[in-house]
Write a structure and sequence with these properties.
By secondary structure, the chain is an alpha+beta fold. The protein contains 10 helices and 17 strands. Helix 4 crosses helix 5 (109-118). The radius of gyration is 20 Å and the shape is globular. The N and C termini lie far apart (45 Å).
């Protein structure tokens, strides 16, 4: 079968990672008549509950990876920190969608910002920090406050420190690893939004409307659609997201996070080469949700319609907030529990989509 031939129903989607995103991708695949095989080192992965096939093995285990690849028709991933060697090894055996290049760009903040800058996508001023002398010089250049970040493995506020002076910066340099680090100018933004965008195997692009995101303790708490932004700002965010997936020659769904500045100016904060937490609202009110859209894209099917049918607020259930299910949800809501065995403080346990109105006429 040609790598560009659409996969027939009954094909098997290989998914790297067994968390909630892998679980939701497996559910979407099943609705489309696909099977899934989930590969994850953690035997307690919640995605294992909803797949007929699973492999519990390390990402460095080439024998297990080869057996996994032999059992599937296409491979995707639910998180962006898949080891580079794993991605390269698997891509030599079966189609990997999105490709290894998207992982390489998104895994390293410096690589990501360089890619965006080269493609004239607006980002906050930044600098690579290799030692304390460079840190002092760049802090003076960018101005304080600034944000010192690890280049890899940072999420939900981890791997970063706000610095107000060189004393702060020197302490942060000692605490953060691995080196090098990246220093970013502190951005006084009005709000944060994100766009979930998809690109098909045929190059077609489809984007969902921007969601307005609110964080609590550095963890996404709510995503509200429609976002409180002007139409031209929303259109520009969607346009930028399309430029990014096209420049990456991307196949699948990608999340793009933006800062909205005064006057509607946009800066890209980061990209995530996967289905995204801020796109969970699509489950309840979009004709095609982000998980189905991703499966369609990587299977070589036509992309679905991303049209929104109602207003919605997605709320993450963190820690013991999961106890809101099954009681107290309200009529116009759609809950989703992730099936995680252990409830921990700060852990995403599920979400609720609260539908607020029918979509307003334009």
């Amino acid at each position: 079968m040609s790598s560009h031939t659409p996969l027939p129903m009954g094909s098997t989607i290989g998914i790297l990672g067994g968390g909630q995103l892998g679980r939701m991708l497996a559910l979407a695949a099943a609705r489309l008549g696909m099977k899934t095989h989930i590969y994850c080192p953690d035997e307690a992965s919640p995605a294992f509950d909803v797949t007929p096939n699973k492999t519990v093995a390390a990402y460095a285990d080439e024998a297990a990876l080869a057996a996994f690849a032999a059992s599937v028709d296409v491979i995707t991933y639910e998180f962006e920190n898949v080891p580079a060697h794993t991605a390269e090894f698997l891509s030599s055996l079966k189609p990997l969608r999105p490709g290894a290049n998207a992982l390489a760009v998104s895994q390293d903040r410096l690589a990501e910002k360089a890619f965006l800058s080269i493609n004239r996508i607006p980002v906050a001023p930044f600098a690579a920090i290799t030692d304390l002398d460079r840190l002092e010089a760049e802090l003076e250049e960018l101005g304080a406050p600034a944000v010192l970040k690890t280049t890899r493995l940072g999420y939900d506020g981890k791997g970063q420190k706000i610095v107000h002076n060189m004393e702060d910066a020197a302490l942060a340099w000692e605490l953060l690893s691995p080196k090098p680090l990246v220093l970013e100018a502190f951005i006084a933004f009005e709000r944060e939004i994100s766009v979930i965008v998809a690109r098909g195997l045929d190059g077609a692009v489809a984007a969902f409307e921007p969601a307005e995101n609110v964080h609590r303790n550095h963890i996404l708490k709510t995503s509200t659609v429609p976002a409180d932004i002007k139409g031209k700002t929303a259109a520009r965010a969607i346009e930028i997201a399309g430029e990014i997936v096209t420049a990456l020659d991307y196949v699948g769904v990608l999340g793009v996070e933006f800062f909205v500045l005064e006057g509607g100016k946009l800066l890209v904060n980061e990209i995530a080469p996967r289905v995204h937490n801020s796109g969970h609202w699509t489950e309840a009110v979009a004709i095609t949700d982000q998980f189905e859209q991703h499966i369609r894209a990587i299977a070589g099917w036509p992309l679905g319609d991303p049209t929104r049918l109602a207003d919605v607020v997605m709320e993450n259930l963190i820690g013991d907030e999961i106890d809101a299910i099954p009681g107290g949800l309200g009529v116009a809501s759609r809950p989703h529990a992730y099936g995680k065995a252990e409830t921990r403080k700060g852990r995403k346990m599920g979400h609720i989509n609260r539908i607020t109105t029918k979509k307003r006429a334009k």
